[in-house]
Amino acid sequence: MRIVAVAAGILRRGAEVLVCRRRASDPHPGKWEFPGGKIEPGESPQDCLKRELAEELGIAGAIGDEIARHRHAYSGGPTVDLWFFDVPSYSGDLSNRVFAEIRWVRPDALAELDLLEADRPVVDLLRADPRNA
């Protein structure tokens, strides 16, 4: 079984979180996800997320607490170990460098988006978070 390690960030703007839509040419085209990416050999999940936020969004993220960790097996694809971290703040001008679209949404609207299966378990945690009320 092939396991891919991934770190993802929950960026906040008031009661909204940032989600990103994959391009048509990407794996799982058109799916929404939280920003992040594959952890490189020798890289911590936090360092991976810092690197990915810089590459994908042009920002320096303040990586906060781990808010979730789980494993997801895609049918006919890899198994993914995911680490989700709070990103309470960042510096730099947020810019979309690699996605079809980025969007700030309230957690209660996440269920309406076609999220990657592996990101869905975090939705309930975000909806229950009092910071998003």
Give the total of domains. Answer: 1
SSE class? alpha+beta
How many H/I helical runs?
2
Q: Uncertain spans, ≥5 residues at pLDDT below 50?
A: none
CATH homology superfamily name: Nucleoside Triphosphate Pyrophosphohydrolase
Helix content: 10-25%
What is the molecular shape? Answer: globular
E-strand count: 9
Mean pLDDT: 93
**Secondary-structure arrangement, i.e. CATH architecture:** Alpha-Beta Complex
- How far apart are the first and last residues' alpha carbons, in Å? 40 Å
- What is the CATH domain class? Alpha Beta
Beta-strand percentage range: 35-45%
Using the CA coordinates, give the radius of gyration.
14 Å
Order of helices and strands: EEEEHEEEEEH
CATH fold descriptor: Nucleoside Triphosphate Pyrophosphohydrolase
Biggest sheet, in brief? 7 strands, mixed
Describe this structure in words.
The protein is α+β, with helices and mostly antiparallel strands and 133 residues long. It has one domain (3-132): Nucleoside Triphosphate Pyrophosphohydrolase (Alpha-Beta Complex). The protein contains two helices and nine strands, in the order ββββαβββββα. The strands form two sheets. Strands 1, 2, 3, 4, 6, 7 and 9 form a seven-stranded mixed sheet that branches. A two-stranded antiparallel sheet has the order 5-8. Strand 1 (3-13) and strand 2 form a beta hairpin.
